[in-house]
Design brief:
The chain is α+β, with helices and mostly antiparallel strands and 138 residues long. Strands 1-2-3-4 form a four-stranded antiparallel β-sheet, sandwiched between helices. Strands 5-6-7 form a three-stranded antiparallel β-sheet. The C terminus is likely disordered.
Length: 138
């Protein structure tokens, strides 16, 4: 991913937030932001794991994921649940391969909130999304 894409989507996100664009999910339900809710761009070219996430994804500290890829912001629901019932989000990498990431792993990567301990933190920082093997199969 080019850093210019990162900047483009960050500016697009900021504009959408200033314009107070409604954030809807695929069923048309609107995301109502909490007063202390803030978003962070998931993509970071300098961090393993985050350098694999689409630059148009933004995650909130309340675990709401939104995309600014289209004309309007879109609230992404968990695409699927894994064997443990945890939410997952799916995306396509630049090479066209499908990838998915658990909601809790995405939260840990973006907000450095490693509730699973220091070993998990080091694995994620070193190996990114591949830290625990392929995750694109339910």
């Amino acid at each position: 991913m080019k850093n210019s894409n990162q900047k483009y989507y960050n500016e697009k996100f900021e504009t959408m937030m200033i314009e107070n664009s409604p954030i809807l999910n695929k069923d048309g339900q609107q995301l109502i932001l909490e007063p202390d809710e803030h978003f962070c761009q998931c993509y970071d070219p300098n961090k393993p794991g985050r350098n694999e996430i689409p630059p148009y994804w933004f995650l909130s500290n309340k675990e709401h994921l939104m995309s600014v890829k289209g004309k309007e912001p879109h609230w992404l629901d968990d695409d699927a649940k894994n064997r443990n019932g945890r939410g997952r989000y799916q995306f396509y990498k630049a090479d066209g391969t499908r990838e998915s990431v658990e909601a809790s792993i995405l939260q840990a990567l973006v907000f450095d909130s490693y509730v699973f301990g220091e070993d998990t933190k080091h694995l994620l920082q070193e190996k990114g999304l591949k830290a625990f093997g392929r995750s694109d199969n339910p």
